[in-house]
Design goal:
The chain is an alpha/beta fold and about 400 residues long. The protein is built from 14 helices and 16 strands. It folds into three domains: about 80 residues, no CATH class; about 110 residues, 3-Layer(aba) Sandwich (Rossmann fold), CATH 3.40.50.1980; about 190 residues, Nitrogenase molybdenum iron protein domain (Rossmann fold, 3-Layer(aba) Sandwich). The strands form five sheets. The chain has a five-stranded parallel β-sheet, with no helix packed on it. A five-stranded mixed β-sheet has the order 12-10-14-15-16, with helices on both faces. Helix 1 crosses helix 2 and helix 1 crosses helix 3.
């Protein structure tokens, strides 16, 4: 006999009563279930809460957000694998009641790591760069967008997605999808561009997509590299740390040849490219909201290293000419000729497509080796980068021969 939504809801009510009597085991310290037992136990807690919220709203008149009857019925249908719940990077509660199989990915970089590209039906135009590592993405519908441009909302809606994966602020920001997607289609905002939350974001998405084996493998790789870097950096006295100017280069940021865009402590995530690697950011305390500095100020600060973040390069580019342009521009500013970083040729450029994403541990290894070449003499950032490709992508991509990630190479 075919089960109706009403029957399922009656079953849900019964399950809810039973779940009230069952203890719920503690989650991992970070609150993200990873093992089957943790997933099932948390599903029990979430389902119990959603049943009670639905009943309170339906029969007691309480105003509370809750799953629809259709979603609640599916939560029962797929229990104990579902429901699954996270708090995303925008601090929104995301509850998934069924397996996701039709995802529009404005932010697709982590899906290749999780081997979940088969669940993607649409990808942002800027995300097509990821197709060099995940060729299957090239066949997905290009929904536009990426960077500062908006995606094509009508095209997204025509695909009938069951979820949208996007950023919090990068590109169109957090408001673009608000109140525009059909009920029951979650907008999951996980950045994968902030080093401090990178592995947490990967664990959250791995949990939502039932790919925790892959997310756990990534976290193990990530931690192995990051912990070793941290261990070595801890041996450097503060008075021996290099002074760094972070040069965030894009001609759209400032039209003046007498200014450079930089990273302050509070205004730009590029700060972590310096401090994570044991550097002292000479612009950390600047209060300029545009994070621009005069060339004369930079010369007076006399940094040991200039670390450039280039809005060019990546996996889809096979020459580093744009990165080289930034290097040459800095090397040839007359006012900077007596600056230590220029005289010692300690100007280094990283592609933001290398830094901003799951490959960050390899990019960090490169930056820290530039900062402290003797301490990290035995560390091979290129080998670490290739290991990342080999572990998580089914591709013959060779970072030694393809792409543009650093300059000088």
């Amino acid at each position: 006999m075919r089960m109706t939504r009403l029957n399922l809801l009656l079953i849900a009510a019964c399950i809810g009563c039973c779940l009230l009597l069952l203890p719920v085991s503690a989650l991992p310290a970070d609150g993200i279930p990873q093992t089957p037992d943790e997933i099932h136990e948390y599903a029990q807690q979430v389902l119990r809460e959603e049943i009670l919220k639905y009943c309170s709203a339906k029969y007691s008149g309480q105003e509370t957000s809750h799953l629809s009857s259709e979603d609640l019925a599916d939560a029962v249908k797929y229990y104990p694998e579902y429901p699954r719940r996270i708090i995303d990077s925008a601090h929104n509660t995301i509850t998934i009641v069924r397996p996701l199989s039709h995802i529009v990915a404005i932010s697709p970089s982590a899906l290749g790591v999780l081997d979940a590209d088969d669940r993607v039906i649409g990808v942002s135009h800027s995300g097509i760069d990821s197709a060099y590592l995940v060729p299957e993405l090239a066949a997905k519908t290009d929904v536009g967008g990426g960077g500062p441009s908006e995606p094509d909302l009508e095209k997204i809606l025509s695909l009938h997605p069951d979820a949208v994966l996007t950023y919090t602020q990068l590109g169109t920001g957090s408001d673009f999808f608000d109140k525009r997607m059909p009920q029951g289609v979650p907008v999951i905002r996980l950045d994968f561009i902030r080093p401090s939350s990178l592995k947490t974001d990967m664990k959250k998405l791995g949990y939502l997509l039932n790919c925790t084996d892959r997310s756990s493998a990534y976290v193990a790789w990530h931690d192995n590299i990051m912990d070793e870097i941290d261990r070595r950096l801890a041996t450097i006295p503060k008075n021996e740390r290099v002074r760094v100017f972070v040069d965030v280069w894009s001609k759209t940021f400032t039209a003046s040849s007498r200014e450079r865009r930089t990273a302050t402590e509070s205004s730009y995530y590029s700060e972590s490219y310096c401090t994570d690697n044991g550097g002292i950011n000479i612009a950390a305390d600047l209060k300029n909201p545009q994070a621009t500095v005069d060339i004369e100020w930079l010369a007076q600060q006399n940094p040991d290293v200039i670390l450039g973040s280039a809005y060019h390069g990546g996996y889809a580019v096979d020459n580093s000419s744009d990165l080289k342009d930034q290097y040459n521009e800095l090397m040839n500013i007359p006012v900077l000729h007596d600056v230590a970083a220029v005289k010692e040729k300690r100007i280094y450029i990283l592609s933001f497509r290398y830094i901003m994403g799951p490959s960050y541990p390899a990019a960090r290894a490169q930056a820290v080796k530039w900062f402290y070449p003797d301490l990290f003499a035995d560390m091979d950032p290129t080998a670490i980068h290739q290991e990342y490709i080999d572990l998580f992508y089914n591709t013959s991509y060779d970072v030694r021969k393809q792409g543009a990630f650093i300059y000088p190479e």
